[in-house]
Design goal:
alpha/beta; six-stranded mixed sheet; five-stranded antiparallel sheet; 11 strands; 26% strand; globular; binds adenosine-5'-diphosphate; binds magnesium ion; ATP-binding; Polar amino acid ABC transporter ATP-binding protein; nucleotide-binding
């Protein structure tokens, strides 16, 4: 198996509004793909579909060779759980549990799943907090943290279940500009470690530096995709050029 994510002719409508129009792409192991495009172009819906936070209306999604949905027909509930468990997602607004400490946020899901011993879960949360530079924040509550720190906690939490794939939906869009760097550094480190990732982002310099491939979405379609050199250096389409120039 050498494809981590295979999406074919993905269609999604909300009522009569067609949000994704036959979107097809694949992601290889260790690849970091950045998805860019105007607001409303379907980036979040595409990402959410991969982890079954949205139910698609047509097409196929195959994760590491296992069909989540094939020609619009979903796998059984237990297969869906297994397949989506191989992916971690990080949201724009962190989505931390305010009533749990940082460590509690990291340990909740693995403690609930009971697949690992408590001591191993505690050791892993310590290691991951150190990895994102927050070893000293284990016992504080999210309300005590800056936005950049909260997002680093959210990334550590996503890593607790050993995902094979990480999905980021505008991870720095809710942050003050001076706090984006600390979050982007963590994501860059994961890319350097060959984590397979899809990153929806408005940070064009970051996308250019870190991504192996850029997907430009517009009006529910992949308008253009290619290497950062191609997309930023010599975009094929006028609408890509216009989008890149407006920033
Ligand atoms: P992006 O992330 O690129 O900004 P989205 O995927 O959030 O785009 O949204 C794409 C389109 O789908 C937008 O027109 C949005 O209003 C619409 N949309 C998203 N979620 C819903 C929903 N739950 N119900 C109805 N329309 C939705
Ligand atoms: Mg979005």
């Amino acid at each position: 198996m050498n494809t981590m994510i295979e999406v074919k002719e993905l269609q999604k409508s909300f009522g009569s509004l067609e949000v994704l129009k036959k979107v097809s792409f694949s992601v290889s192991p260790g690849e970091a793909v950045a998805v860019i495009g105007p607001s409303g172009s379907g980036k979040s819906t595409m990402l959410r579909s991969l982890v079954h936070l949205e139910e698609i209306t047509g097409g196929s999604i195959v994760i590491q060779g296992k069909p989540l949905v094939e020609n619009g027909k979903y796998a059984g509930a237990s297969d869906i759980r297994t397949i989506t468990a191989s992916m971690g997602m990080v949201f724009q607004h962190f989505n931390l549990f305010p009533h749990l400490t940082v460590r509690g946020n990291l340990e909740l899901a693995p403690r609930t799943l009971k697949r690992e011993k408590v001591a191993a879960i505690e050791a892993k949360s310590r290691d991951l907090l150190a990895k994102v530079g927050l070893a000293d924040k284990a016992d504080v509550y999210p309300s005590m943290l800056s936005g950049g720190q909260k997002q680093r906690v959210a990334i550590a939490r996503a890593l607790m279940l050993n995902p094979d794939i990480l999905l980021f939906d505008e991870p720095t869009s809710a942050l003050d500009p001076e706090l984006t760097g600390e979050v982007l550094r963590v994501i860059r480190q994961l890319a350097d470690e060959q984590m397979t990732m899809i990153i929806v982002t408005h940070e064009m310099n970051f996308a250019r530096d870190v991504a192996d491939r850029i997907i430009f979405m517009d009006k529910g379609e992949i308008a253009e995709s290619g290497t950062p050199e191609q997309i930023f250096g010599s975009p094929r389409l006028e609408r890509t050029r216009l989008f890149l120039n407006q920033g």
